[in-house]
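Re-running the complex after MR caught last week's input typo. The corrected sequence lines follow. Everything else is unchanged.
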Amino acid sequence: MNMIVCCKQVLDPEAAPSTFKLDAANNRMVQPPEIKPVVNPYDEQAVEAALRIKDKDKTQKVTVISLGNNLVRDVVKKPLSMGADELILLEDPAFEGGDSFAVATALAAAIKKVGQFDIIFCGRQESEWDDGQVGSGIAEILGIPSVTVAKKVEVIDGGKLRVERVIADGYQVVEVSTPCLITVSNEIGEARYATLKGIMAASKKQPIVWKPADIGVDKAGAAARKSKIVKLFQPVKEGKCDIVSADSPAEAGALLAAKLRENKVI
Amino acid sequence: MADNKGILVVGEVMEGKLLPITAELLGAGKKLAGELGETLSCILISDKVGDAAKAAIVAGADKVYVTEDPQLKDYSNDTYMQVMEKAVKDLSPRIVIMGQTPVGRDLAPRLAFRLGVSATMDCLELAIDPASKLMNCTRPVYGGNARAVFTSEGIPQIATVRTKAATPNAPDPGKAGEVIPFTVAIDAGKVKAKVLQTVKEEVAGIKLEDASAVVSGGRGMGGPEPFTKELAELAKILKGAVGASRPPCDNKWVADSIQVGLTGKIIAPELYIAVGISGSSQHMSGCSGSKCIVAINKDPEANIFKEARFGVVGDWKVVLPAFTTKVKELVQ
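Corrected-run output:
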């Protein structure tokens, strides 16, 4: 089975909210240089889903594709150090500033160029624009079925998959034929750590780099957008917390209850 | 598609009942329809729609299109796309809106990509630009650390709306409206992803989404026990429900179904008590609509204190029992 996982390098979503600054000229947020970017956490979990299938049969191949510009090598190589086999970078200034349409179009073109695939994995959404469209978009462009927000993916007989899809009060059990696309949710559980052996192996692997012309897209990034950003802004937070303090934490707890009653909250 | 007119709401029906998100979408849709001077329609797709069609009219729809088929009982994009593709073609709406739900977040992007237009996901606010007549969609980005207003020129414009973000219209039982059967022959041959089973993970007591008070625990709880003891006790006294931020769910301390946050449930109770929760943006996205947020956390720098109305800095193990005892005394 050939598996492809799409991974995005993002600003660190776990960093304190105060580290996010507005770059109004470019309609994006930035973080100070000391905060290193990361692989989008949902995408790491998508790598995990693929590796769990590979764990059962080592002959299966996992190829990771990342799109962007100025990608930090030891960040985008993390899936390799977790156990993925190959890394393709769609890296070019022209890929910058795309929306879900631009990104899905480029990724689908790259996947077509890879040629052989049975399962494409994506994270359920990325942590910058939180759009959650790219996976479905790739499936639509390639004309293959998609199951989104999966918490479990297993290969069953006849090249089919059994997928558990998270819904409001539980999950759906879905059987899907391959080739197909699956988006993975955090319910799948934590992604594995990179092993020392994995990091050594990854450091020796050279990623394949493709430009827009290599995958046959004439418009990429900002030029390929379907949506326009009218405005990007940071909402002002009032931040008026009434901190209740007393001689001891227990007294503060009791005082908090009294305060809630006073303000008719309880 | 210069002739496209009107707003089409993709409603959701469960066991013959209109889900609350549909009334919220009809609230958002009525505002858009008013700004454009056009009609507000709603399509209901299910195995049996029943009285939900009338309920959609009471909630503000001028026209309700009903598509019923046993194959539409469980959501699958392979079947629902067949309905929506025909609906957009035959009804030519200017705008299509859906809920940011397991249905809408899957269906909207597939529909947008098939039609070659843009979808804007998880919106908090929709408005019409009077000059261009195009919809502007405001949505949180960067995990709630910023907001963006998007627009697009491809028609129909498609958007999904976050649950609890829009206000339903006041129910109007006397409202005139038309229920129109919208028949689509579902081609079973196109179904590649088949729903075999739907498993419900029922949580005992009041549902998180319906509770007026929610007591949530975070990473600081340290394990599963406090969720069934201290937090559950307080929730019971307040006649509320227990929730959690993402770390307790990822650590399997509690069921995934009680996760509050961007990737869990989005709730807006009267009272939200956050215990041992740092207040990450992804968590706040799920509870920032609460009327009153109360925080108990030992870290005075925790982001939750920037979001809360009342708070105590201290170890929950000491603060919470005293708080609960006093609450019990006051509410009884």
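None of the earlier attempt is carried over here. DSSP finds seven helices and 15 strands in chain A. The mean pLDDT of chain A is 95.
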